[in-house]
Amino acid sequence: MTMSDTAVPEPTPEQAVLFARVRRMMLIAGLTTALAICAVLIAVGYRLFKSEGRAAEPAGDVTATLPKGAKIVSTGVAGDRLVVTLDLGGIIEIRTFDARTLKPAGRLKFANEP
């Protein structure tokens, strides 16, 4: 044996038990991490393939008809919705449209109590 070689002593039985426990815990942690990474990759892949079939076509020229005498009070954007506020002869109405397709998404009317 030369001076550069170091002798590694055999572990005691208590140390061997401790090493086995540490190896087991490392194996459990590694498998849990691998399972989490697989779950994330599966979720991302699912979202990519699911959204592929419903690609929204861009909206071309769209004409929205308003009731006679209606006035546009304001317009705005909220998330992926286009919001138009109308005055229909004293009654306020809010109409929402999908910003990508410009299809009507909803209508909210306000009226005074009698």
Write the layout of secondary structure elements.
Elements: H1 13-52, E1 70-78, E2 81-88, E3 91-98, E4 104-110
Antiparallel strand pairs: 1-2, 2-3, 3-4
Dominant shape:
rod-shaped
Give the low-pLDDT segments: none
Strand order of the largest sheet: 1-2-3-4
Helical residue percent band: 25-40%
As a percent range, the share of strand residues is: 25-35%
What is the H/E order?
Answer: HEEEE
Largest β sheet strand count, sense and barrel closure: 4 strands, antiparallel
Q: Output the structural class.
A: alpha+beta
Overall mean pLDDT? 86
The end-to-end distance, rounded to whole angstroms, is 105 Å
* Strand runs, count: 4
Task: Note the total helix count.
Answer: 1
Radius of gyration: 33 Å
Structural overview:
- With 114 residues, this protein is α+β, with helices and mostly antiparallel strands.
- Helix content is 35%, strand content 28%.
- The protein contains 1 helix and 4 strands.
- The protein has one helix at 13-52, and strands spanning 70-78, 81-88, 91-98, 104-110.
- The chain has a 4-stranded antiparallel beta sheet, with no helix packed on it.
- The N and C termini lie far apart (105 Å).
